Amino acid sequence: MANNNEVRATAKYVRMAPRKVRMVVDQIRNKSVEKALEVLQFSPRAAAEPVAKTLRSAVANAENNNGLRADSLVIKYAYVDEGPTLKRIRPRAKGSASRINKRTSHITIVVAPGKEA
């Protein structure tokens, strides 16, 4: 996976459930960077903001560290892994308690020069 022209960016410990973030990431996979940013800009989902930030970071890494042009980049890999879960407790009836899982995500986006798939 570590080709010379592939550039990655990772956002760790994003306070959103991975299942919800994956819905957004699935929409931009294998698209050109311009098209993906356009999709994210008009997406109604809250997860679109951290995904767009991560994508912009990957593009900046490609331009500054590898000397690649932003208009030729395509999203090669985009995936969301589960981060640590914050466990909280909510009081319930008759002195019992129920568990609330506040999930976190690790968003990884890899861009590479090429044609849109």
Question: Your description of this structure?
Answer:
With about 120 residues, this protein is of the alpha+beta class. It has a single domain, classed as Ribosomal Protein L22, Chain A (Alpha-Beta Complex). It contains three helices and five strands; from the N terminus they run βαααββββ. The protein has a three-stranded antiparallel sheet with strand order 1-5-2. The protein has a two-stranded antiparallel sheet with strand order 3-4. α2 runs antiparallel to α3. The longest helix is centred in the middle third of the chain and has 19 residues.
Features:
two-stranded antiparallel sheet, Ribosomal Protein L22, Chain A, alpha+beta, 3 helices, elongated, 5 strands, three-stranded antiparallel β-sheet, 117 residues
How do you describe this structure in short?
By secondary structure, the protein is of the alpha+beta class.
In total, the number of strands is: 5
Structural domain count: 1
Named CATH topology: Ribosomal Protein L22, Chain A
CATH class placement: Alpha Beta
Structural class based on helices, strands and sheet pairing: alpha+beta
The CA-CA distance between the termini, in Å, is: 17 Å
Low-confidence stretches: none
Q: At CATH's second level, what is the architecture? A: Alpha-Beta Complex
Please report the number of helical segments: 3
Residue share in β-strands: 25-35%
CATH superfamily: Ribosomal protein L22/L17
Query: In this structure, how is the largest beta sheet organized?
Result: 3 strands, antiparallel
Radius of gyration: 17 Å
Mean pLDDT: 92
**Fraction of helical residues:** 25-40%
